[in-house]
Design goal:
Strand content: under 5%
CATH superfamily: lambda repressor-like DNA-binding domains
Number of strands: 0
Order of helices and strands: HHHHH
Helix content: 40-55%
Distance between the termini: 16 Å
Radius of gyration: 11 Å
Shape: globular
């Protein structure tokens, strides 16, 4: 699971604020954070939007055990 919620909260953003900053629907953010959306279904372009909004690196969002998710 990506570290979106952890990073978002550490930066002091609500889901609504992240949605406004990133252009990603709040409902989508909720599904990603709660693990409803499979990591393999998250588009790279969406992750980049989060990185820009949260001013973080892509590697910050990715799980530490990334090898489990690569086919």
């Amino acid at each position: 699971m990506i570290n979106l919620k952890e990073i978002r909260e550490s930066k002091g953003f609500s889901r609504r604020e992240l949605a406004l900053l990133s252009g990603v629907n709040e409902h989508t953010i909720q599904h990603i954070e709660n693990g409803i959306t499979d990591n393999q279904e998250i588009k790279l372009s969406t992750l980049i939007k989060f990185c820009k909004a949260l001013k973080c690196k892509l590697s910050d969002l990715l799980p530490k055990d990334l090898h489990k998710y690569i086919r």
